[in-house]
């Protein structure tokens, strides 16, 4: 055999680069490698950068500054699956940084990420693509982009992924997306309920929690609740509540069920399966205050529907709510009180709360929490409205003083409802008197000054309820409550204005209060209101008339007319007709003026005198069988009064010698004697038309006979009376209708002129 010869190795081709292992110690170098055309280099560079970015937020910022994001954006769509996977992994963890997210939005990466959710992609790509989308979906603009680019459908499909990380990221992204109305409405047609219910069976609590939170958002929609019921979602939620190991999910499960309470069909389904009873029992025994609070809130929200209120009443929800009032947690007490308020629209519920719930609510009025106090008094306001029995229960629970105290609460709603509750109680005389004894008018003075229209309205209405008592009106005056009440007449709010007018109507029932209201400008404001078609109402008209009727001096001065029902009493004064816009002065203000040559002010301050009493006795003798305050009188009685007045004022005067009757000098002498412009009518011995007409009215009012007083021009005034003629031909028992006459007090005292006759018109005018 010949000797072996060693075969020589052929050298590598000259155009091939020998493999080079590089050990880089800086991220910048690796970022440069992202521009390499070699897939293996790209894959290894991405892997190294993923590990670097995973170490902390500072490293993510470093990579951002090195321009890594722009390079990676190109690589998430790379044809090589490993490069694509590794690039998306970096995106997934870097997107948690705010600045990175901002750049990703600018690069509009959502469409590329959604493309990576295709079924054929690797599960790792699904994991990090959904993670990146979940980070970005926190921002509203990105939510819109994901929705518009069709991201919901693949995300819902991935809820069924075998990988729990993909499930978690997908459901989290969906949860964030459905916060937006468009996405929330769109998931209905994408059959999202079944996969979400399936996730509730997950062994990972975070996935269960996110699924429940998503269900809570989308179950606010009626159609979604129906779908939830059809897929046995209600049973699934109740099962979570019955499982102690799922206690960390109970609050969220109840939130979903709470939404279902708002749907009649879902609620009926719960009732039929016994689920509603289970739910209420669970809430009562639970020691988690958030569960109790959220359930009470759900009941309050649902109870605005009448059918739902009926179902809840059938399940005796009242007992559960009353028990919740006893829980030592302010949030639970507030929510329970609010639920009671909502349930009060049901009459059976209102009665059920009355016996046990009202004492509990009254106790809450003394709470240190303003929120608790507000919720409790709101419930009491609703419970006592149109319910005398519940009003009695409040009084029996010693709730009157706490309610009056609540008028000084810090919250407007609490003040308004305290006023409403007190007004509801005031419909019963016994309680009204008790409330007045608690200085309610003094307490109402401050709410009248509120800037809140609801408080203003309810406070004014309460003033109207209690203002029928003279002592209460005095208390309001002394507390300075009339000024803010008058200011409320200016309100642009129709209800406030209406209730203020009602309060003025009631408070003007006595002369002192009426005069004070007029002094504060109520009369002028009401005159203005009643000239407006838009603002005028029956209350403003009644208020104006009541003010005038209890401030006759001003009424006669401004209107020049007093009816037979306007009874002149001591303190009345006639200062003549005042022009529009001129302030009407009080007697005290007039008395402080120096003596002038202007018209004298005639003052009434009569004391019983024998001659006046004699007239009264004559008017009530056997020939005049008329009861006091009758609107009509006989001719005989009229003549007697007329002659009496004429005799006291200078006697009869011949018509053609009227100009010689020097009454002005006589009045001036009295003014000079008294050193003031105010002249008591008893001092007048020579009086003309307006003096005599006034005296005639005063005497008629004192003996209870109807008589009106009318002011004319040029010192003219006259009295209008209704007279009953004697029966013709002595026919006993025949009642003739009264007729209106003008009384002659000047020329032929006692002569009666039929209203509308030529002689009556001549008497009225020069």
What can you see in these coordinates?
The strands form two sheets. Strands 1, 4, 6, 7, 8 and 9 form a six-stranded mixed β-sheet that branches. A three-stranded mixed β-sheet has the order 2-3-5. The chain contains 44 helices and nine strands. 59% of the residues lie in helices and 4% in strands. Among the domains are: 112 residues, Leucine-rich Repeat Variant; 178 residues, no CATH class. With 766 residues, it is mainly alpha-helical.
Q: The biggest beta sheet, please?
A: 6 strands, mixed
Query: Average pLDDT across residues?
Result: 88
Range of helix content: 55-70%
Number of strands: 9
N→C terminal distance: 173 Å
- Into which percentage range does the β-strand content fall? under 5%
Rounded Rg: 45 Å
Structural class: mainly alpha
- As residue ranges, the low-confidence spans are 609-633
Shape type: elongated
The number of helical elements comes to 44
């Amino acid at each position: 055999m010949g000797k072996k010869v060693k075969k020589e190795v052929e050298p590598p081709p000259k155009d091939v680069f020998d493999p080079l292992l590089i050990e880089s110690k800086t991220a910048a170098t690796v970022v440069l490698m992202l521009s390499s055309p070699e897939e293996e280099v790209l894959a290894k560079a991405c892997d190294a950068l993923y590990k670097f970015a995973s170490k902390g937020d500072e490293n993510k910022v470093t990579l951002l500054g090195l321009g890594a994001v722009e390079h990676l954006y190109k690589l998430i769509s790379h044809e090589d699956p490993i490069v694509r996977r590794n690039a998306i992994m970096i995106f997934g963890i870097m997107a948690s940084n705010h600045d990175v997210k901002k750049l990703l939005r600018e690069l509009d990466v959502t469409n590329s990420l959604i493309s990576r959710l295709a079924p054929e992609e690797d599960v790792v790509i699904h994991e990090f693509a959904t993670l990146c989308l979940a980070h970005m979906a926190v921002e509203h603009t990105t939510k819109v982009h994901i929705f518009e680019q069709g991201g919901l459908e693949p995300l819902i499909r991935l809820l069924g992924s075998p990988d729990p990380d993909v499930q978690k990221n997908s459901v989290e992204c969906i949860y964030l997306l459905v916060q937006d109305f468009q996405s929330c409405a769109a998931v209905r047609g994408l059959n999202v309920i079944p996969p979400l219910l399936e996730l509730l069976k997950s062994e990972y609590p975070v996935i269960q929690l996110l699924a429940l939170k998503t269900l809570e958002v989308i179950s606010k929609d009626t159609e979604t609740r129906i779908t939830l019921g059809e897929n046995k979602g209600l049973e699934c939620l109740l099962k979570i509540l019955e499982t102690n190991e799922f206690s960390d999910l109970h609050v969220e499960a109840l939130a979903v069920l709470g939404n279902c309470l708002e749907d009649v069909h879902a609620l009926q389904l719960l009732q039929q399966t016994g689920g509603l009873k289970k739910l209420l029992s669970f809430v009562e025994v639970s020691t988690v205050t958030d569960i109790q609070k959220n359930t009470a809130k759900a009941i309050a929200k649902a109870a605005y529907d009448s059918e739902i209120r009926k179902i809840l009443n059938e399940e005796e929800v009242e007992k559960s709510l009353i028990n919740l009032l006893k829980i030592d947690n302010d949030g639970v007490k507030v929510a329970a009180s609010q639920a009671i308020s909502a349930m009060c629209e049901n009459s059976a519920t209102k009665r059920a709360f009355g016996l046990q719930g009202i004492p509990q609510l009254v106790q809450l009025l003394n709470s240190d929490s303003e929120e608790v106090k507000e919720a409790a008094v709101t419930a009491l306001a609703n419970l006592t409205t149109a319910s005398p029995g519940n009003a009695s229960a409040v009084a029996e629970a010693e709730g009157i003083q706490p309610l009056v105290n609540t008028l000084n609460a810090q919250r407007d709603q609490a003040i308004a409802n305290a006023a409403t509750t007190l007004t509801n109680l005031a419909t019963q005389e016994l309680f009204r008197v008790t409330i007045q004894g608690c200085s309610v008018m003094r307490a109402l003075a401050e709410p009248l000054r509120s800037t809140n229209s609801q408080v203003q309205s309810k406070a004014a209405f309460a003033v109207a309820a209690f203002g029928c008592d003279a002592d209460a009106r005095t208390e309001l005056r002394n507390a300075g409550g009339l000024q803010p009440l008058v200011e409320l007449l200016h309100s642009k709010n129709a209800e406030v204005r209406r209730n203020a007018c009602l309060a003025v109507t009631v408070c003007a029932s006595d002369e002192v209060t009426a005069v004070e209201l007029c002094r504060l400008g109520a009369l002028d404001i009401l005159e203005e209101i009643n000239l407006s078609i838009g603002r005028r109402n029956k209350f403003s008209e009644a208020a104006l008339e009541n003010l005038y009727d209890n401030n006759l001096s001003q009424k006669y001065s401004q209107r020049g007319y007093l009816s037979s029902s306007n009874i002149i009493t001591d303190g009345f004064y006639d200062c003549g007709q005042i022009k529009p816009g001129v302030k009407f002065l009080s007697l005290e203000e007039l008395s402080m003026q120096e003596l002038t040559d202007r018209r004298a002010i005639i003052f009434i301050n009569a004391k019983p005198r024998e001659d006046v009493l004699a007239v009264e006795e004559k008017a009530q003798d056997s020939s005049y069988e008329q009861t006091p305050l009758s609107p009509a009188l006989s001719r005989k009685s009229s003549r007697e009064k007329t002659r009496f007045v004429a005799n006291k004022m200078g006697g009869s005067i011949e018509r053609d010698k009227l100009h010689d009757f020097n009454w002005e000098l006589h009045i001036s002498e009295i003014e000079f004697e008294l050193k003031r412009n105010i002249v008591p009518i008893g001092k007048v011995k020579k009086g003309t038309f307006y003096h005599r007409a006034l005296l005639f009215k005063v005497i008629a009012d004192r003996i209870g006979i109807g008589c009106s007083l009318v002011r004319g021009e040029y010192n003219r005034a006259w009295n209008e009376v209704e007279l009953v003629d004697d029966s013709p031909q002595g026919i006993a028992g025949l009642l003739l209708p009264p007729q209106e006459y003008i009384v002659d007090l000047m020329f032929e005292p006692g002569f009666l002129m039929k209203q509308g006759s030529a002689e009556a018109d001549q008497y009225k005018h020069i």
